[in-house]
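Please decode residue identities from the backbone states below.
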């Protein structure tokens, strides 16, 4: 992730989830989008997380600090800066995020739920990023003219070996061995052309 170019995101808002009753969708968009075209990532969050984000977006002042407000107060008290949030993974339908913090002397990466990390980032003004891989697998194209285009499926045969190897490792980690065997075969065909020919 350190060497991969990150994509900056902005928070659009909260909507009701169309796929999970009782839940909400946090909608993110590439920061360099145009008024007519964008790539958007919906992240399903619970009611409490949605409320915390919505309270900040709508500039509502709660009578007592919410949990994320408390985190920000502690950051300020101990002179800790949230430098950025990176949504670095999407596995089994779950996003994972990293909070990059510093007190001026020590820098740390803290693993966090994506909704928590984003809620704190909104309150501190820290930028939010994701990787190209997460964007590729979770975003869809939004167009002002009303057309919604999911990311086109990519044939395994068209992927570079580097991406195939990452996908192979994911399948092995998930114990999806049939898929892993198929990817391994494609890698062999790409790295040893003609080896499968008898």
């Amino acid at each position: 992730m350190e060497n991969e170019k990150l994509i900056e995101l902005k928070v659009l808002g909260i909507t009701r989830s169309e796929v999970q009753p009782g839940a909400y969708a946090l909608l993110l968009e590439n920061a360099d989008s145009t008024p007519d075209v964008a790539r958007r990532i919906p992240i399903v969050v619970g009611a409490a997380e949605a409320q915390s984000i919505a309270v900040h977006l709508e500039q509502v002042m709660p009578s007592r600090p919410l949990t994320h407000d408390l985190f920000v107060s502690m950051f300020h008290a101990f002179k800790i800066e949230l430098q950025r949030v990176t949504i670095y993974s999407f596995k089994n339908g779950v996003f994972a995020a990293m909070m990059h913090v510093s007190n001026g002397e020590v820098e740390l990466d803290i693993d966090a739920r994506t909704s928590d990390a984003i809620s704190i980032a909104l309150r501190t003004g820290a930028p939010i990023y994701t990787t190209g891989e997460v964007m590729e697998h979770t975003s869809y194209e939004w167009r002002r003219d009303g057309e919604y285009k999911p990311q086109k499926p990519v044939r395994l045969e068209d992927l570079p070996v580097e991406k195939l190897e990452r996908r192979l490792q994911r399948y092995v980690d998930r114990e999806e061995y049939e898929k892993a065997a198929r990817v391994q075969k494609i890698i062999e065909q790409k790295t040893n052309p003609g080896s499968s020919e008898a």
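Observation: Strands lie at 6-16, 24-30, 37-45, 81-91, 94-102, 107-113, 128-131, 140-143, 148-150.
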